[in-house]
Amino acid sequence: MTQNDLNVQEHTHADHFLHQLRSRTADSHKRLEELPVSTSITSPNITKASYAHYLQLMGAVIHQTESAIFPKLAHAVPDIDNRHKSKSIIADLKFMGYDLKSFPPPFTKNIDSEAFALGIMYVVEGSTLGGRFILKNIQQALGFEQEGTQYFSGYGNKTGSSWKHFLDALTSYEAKNGHMEEIIKGADYAFTAIYDHLKSHSGHED
């Protein structure tokens, strides 16, 4: 088998893995996206209060991801130290005159598996990619530019390449270690846990 054959085989396996990951989490992903608090940030009628409330809710998700998930993935995701977003949420809230709110941890499961943690990070990093679409709505509806939009700006013009680098790390990990099922379980759990978190606190706007 030539090196080219090996490269094709690896690429095909990575495509299969990512297809399984996306298709088997599609239902929980869609359910999260259809929550009223989720659709509110893509509405042209979004208010500053509803935007701030969403950031407060996601602040709890991001904080727990960075404090509990990131330390488990230092070897699996080489650039993980560049993927912190809590400061961006705090800055956006401060610009609008809001503070972070205290919520119970969204992820209640004891996460001791690196593969499961990678599945959770797949969901969190994927939301950064999708945030570019939301960014345009925030800018148009609320008139914000750089200030007030740091979180949804993601990694700026490097957002696309940062997502690709994460997928490369994810597929490399799976190709080397296996654990496809555990990664998928982690991603599905993350979509469901974030859904439960947003739904149970979505009526608590201040």
Automatic annotation (TrEMBL):
GO terms for biological process: heme oxidation. It comes from the Bacteria. Coiled coil: none annotated. GO terms for molecular function: heme oxygenase (decyclizing) activity. This is Heme oxygenase. It comes from Flavobacterium pallidum. The lineage of its organism: Bacteria, Pseudomonadati, Bacteroidota, Flavobacteriia, Flavobacteriales.
